[in-house]
């Protein structure tokens, strides 16, 4: 047991240099690249004097290393700078919009796992059947689908043609009141209040963007599940289990699936990278008020601090998710931390 | 293991390629589609029926017809001509980006794999840090920092792809560092650079080709995504991503053809490169067939 806790501690310690690297790259993106940040921050109607003033106030006249230390100091206080376009602190804006993005992303991931993993298992246990063919088709088509395009097609079919989806504008129709913020997830908050009408309204708004994102992530998860299950089913321990007369369900789920889950969980890390990027596009298509659409609005008006704050926030989120996945390993895999170093 | 006594390979590689294409018609189809896209990119601008930039208010927003196969957009421009002409820009962006990351990744990976030691450790740390970002988000940040232009879209797409190539080359070079043929080449008096470039690196080319093909589809998606959110390509220029973005405003009022056709073309292009990647893998590495 001690070995396992050491391994967990070691894994957490490993993410420290990665976080440091992420901070360094974010800093470099703001400061060391061609183009003068002072000119950008000063805005379009800047005079040489006002640019110098901005340079001094941003600390850009100091040496690079000192600038970096100041940047880290600000970060530790949760200060990501001011947004030029809205005048509010970037950290505050991101924090208020993050729950919207997380609610969308997590719903989509749960949805796609709920479809892709059973599909992959079925395809692996019945190779060559129609399930297998369907899985293959989904896997090949799924990776070619541009998320923003799928979203638009879904809007056309379900909003314009069939009229069963609400207009693709944000998290909640204006006829509903926003639930009291507890977690920031509208589904959870409205359920906590017992306001099921709002809950249904939220679900209606959420379902199309979530399906769009889920379709995008379905392919890698289904492909990996199928491959991992096939590999596990052909292993010697499965033959032994069968020979020992264990039931079909026990062999399939107790032995094969549990082992196949490990590579699938690893794939989830890569899927997160895709999903966080695709999130930006889906939020733009559905006018979803998350951090992705905030960054897109900021990009259009060259709001520098906002974009960099967004990039840093996404990267930290990604590092955390990967850490969570690796820690999930320690729960799933009893061998975790026992192998020879 | 009994090996079917095939008639002795007629012409080695070409025979094997012909065999794979015959066995797997989907791969043949993907090569045909690739030829089509290449043709569109090279000759499209000369062959399209209308000027992709010519506006004509009288025929705005018309659904597909015999005269305008893909309909017309809000300014009366022919969507078909725009979709075909856009092929060149989209392919140029993705091919340039992938070529750039191929070259940079190969050099970095080869040096790290051959030298080992600190060079290797530092390179791995840097690549890990790049991979610690969600890649599309990093591309957004890079374009925002470098400035909003097509060239910078190419650089950003190249940077986020470098880790894949560098890691692949590093692994391939590293396992051959002490190989017999490497030592023989060194003993024969070749310089280190020459040994890496002409004796070790060519061994990494087959898996690299597969990676290139899979990467091209991804690079197109990435570039189209960036222009969809308003980065890089400017409005009157025909480009798939921006055309879908423009068409998205009309989808809620039922003008589906504006977004559908550029989106379909984009999808088809990505699909082609993905299928080609799978097909190439069958050709260069028969063991990894699934």
Compose a concise summary of this entry.
Chain A is mainly alpha-helical and 341 residues long. Chain A has 13 helices and no strands. The mean pLDDT of chain A is 79.
| Integer-rounded radius of gyration of chain B | 23 Å
CATH homologous superfamily heading of the domain at 90-300 in chain A: MetI-like
Q: Which CATH class of the domain at 90-300 in chain A?
A: Mainly Alpha
Distance between the termini of chain A: 15 Å
Specify Rg of chain A, calculated over alpha carbons: 24 Å
Give, in order, the helices and strands of chain B: HHHHHHHHHHH
Q: How many strand segments of chain A?
A: 0
Instruction: Profile the largest sheet of chain A.
Output: none
- List the uncertain runs of chain B: 1-10
Describe the structure.
The complex is a heterodimer of chains A (341) and B (290). By secondary structure, chain A is an all-alpha fold. Chain A has a domain at 90-300: MetI-like (MetI-like fold, Orthogonal Bundle). Chain A contains 13 helices and no strands. Chain A has helices at residues 2-31, 37-42, 48-58, 64-76, 90-125, 130-144, 147-161, 186-193, 196-233, 236-243, 248-285, 291-300, 304-332. The longest helix of chain A is centred in the middle third of the chain and has 38 residues, at 196-233. The radius of gyration of chain A is 24 Å and the shape is globular. The mean pLDDT of chain A is 79. Chain B has 290 residues and is mainly α. Chain B has helices at 13-23, 25-47, 79-115, 117-131, 135-146, 150-175, 180-187, 192-200, 205-228, 240-251, 257-284. Chain B is elongated. Residues 1-10 of chain B have low confidence and may be disordered. Chains A and B meet through helix 1, helix 6, helix 7, helix 11 and helix 12 of A and helix 4, helix 5, helix 9, helix 10 and helix 11 of B.
Structural topology:
The complex is a heterodimer of chains A (341) and B (290).
Chain A: H1 2-31, H2 37-42, H3 48-58, H4 64-76, H5 90-125, H6 130-144, H7 147-161, H8 186-193, H9 196-233, H10 236-243, H11 248-285, H12 291-300, H13 304-332
Helix pairs in contact in A: 1-4, 1-13, 5-6, 5-9, 5-11, 6-9, 7-9, 7-11, 8-9, 9-11, 10-11, 11-12, 11-13, 12-13
Chain B: H1 13-23, H2 25-47, H3 79-115, H4 117-131, H5 135-146, H6 150-175, H7 180-187, H8 192-200, H9 205-228, H10 240-251, H11 257-284
Helix pairs in contact in B: 1-2, 2-3, 2-11, 3-4, 3-6, 3-9, 4-6, 5-6, 6-9, 7-8, 9-10, 9-11, 10-11
